[in-house]
Amino acid sequence: MFAVEAKNLKKTFKSKDGDVEAVKDVSFHVNEGEIFSILGPNGAGKSTTILMLTTLLRVTSGKGSILGLDVEKEDKKVREKIGIALQDTGLDNLLTGRELFFTTARLWGFTKQDAETRTSELLELVGLNEAADRRVKTYSGGMKRRLDLGLSLVHKPEVLFLDEPTTGLDPGSRRVLWDEIKRLREDGVTIILTTQYLEEADELADRISIIDNGLVVAEGTPDELKAQIGGDVITFIFNNYEDSKTAKDLILNSEIEGNELRVAVENGAEKIPDLLRKLSEKNLEVTSVSASKPSLDDVFLQVTGYRLEGASDQEVDSEKELSEYE
CA torsion sign, 103 to 108 to 112 to 113? Predict the structure, then answer.
């Protein structure tokens, strides 16, 4: 039995201009105790997929299950098994961190004593002991993300969904949250996280599903995905896009992004002189060239045709998405 399974999930919204397919056909499974990353740009369908699997959005077609429970037919049981930390949860800024943990525990049915115990445990877990009695409105962005993570763990879920958990955080705060996520995995929690950060997926995920335009375009461990590229990646940089476009016609199996051209080859360092000669014969001036091992950036470029960089720090808010299409 898988911790999470999606089979041909689809979600269509109604709009004035007709139907909009936010998720066209998404299938994947997540093993118990692993970190599974859904990687993709804004608008790819990542958040919508998470909302369907967490029972917060109805499925148009297909099937989702959590620990063998159908997300539509057994939604109440599913919610007892999962924790959710969405991008914008609307934390109560007037309460303190301690009050939020205690109140949430009581809502989950904890006795007062057990709620106090759980509150102390979680404040320690997410490193908010010193700020426990400060109002949430005084918390930094990183502290609020850790608070939100802790709140999703109050009832000790077996499966945790994190939607863009580090969006907008500085590198230091992002690293702290990564450490917390790894610690949870070590405690046996299954974690599904969406991200648009290549480094985050590479650092955390046991397996990755790349989603683009509502479809799964690649899946595997980070090493498996990189191995699909094979060999080395040579990167040529030209003065302009027109030169890189012309170079693409000369070099087989290459991809361009702006004025850069990348090609996967065996023994990259040895192939550079021959490729430079071919470009020179067409009077194409190369400003720089380098060879490196494949990265997730190279994988993403190969399977989508563009690179996942310069992405906005804010994914389209799912609630706004719903209000726009319903």
Answer: negative
Q: Cβ contacts of residue 304 below 8 Å, gap of 6+? A: 210, 212, 217
Distance CA 97, CA 105 (A): 12
> Max alpha carbon distance in the chain (Å)?
79
Q: How far apart are CA 283 and CA 119, in angstroms?
A: 68
Question: Boundaries of CATH 3.40.50.300 in the chain?
Answer: 4-225
pTM for the complete prediction?
A: 0.79
What class has domain 231-293? alpha beta
Query: Cα torsion at 9, 216, 188, 228 (round to 10°)?
Result: 160
CB atoms within 10 A of CB 315: 23
CATH 3.40.50.300 fits 4-225, yes or no: yes
Alpha-helix runs per DSSP H in the chain: 46-53, 75-81, 97-107, 112-125, 141-151, 171-186, 198-204, 222-229, 241-250, 268-281, 296-304, 318-325
From-to residues of CATH 3.30.70.120 in the chain: 231-293
C-beta of residue 204 within 8 angstroms of C-beta of residue 17: no
- pLDDT, tens digit, 9 for 90 and up, residues 36-91: 999 988 889 999 999 999 999 999 999 999 999 999 999 999 999 999 988 766 78
Q: In whole angstroms, what is the distance from residue 256 CA to residue 245 CA?
A: 7
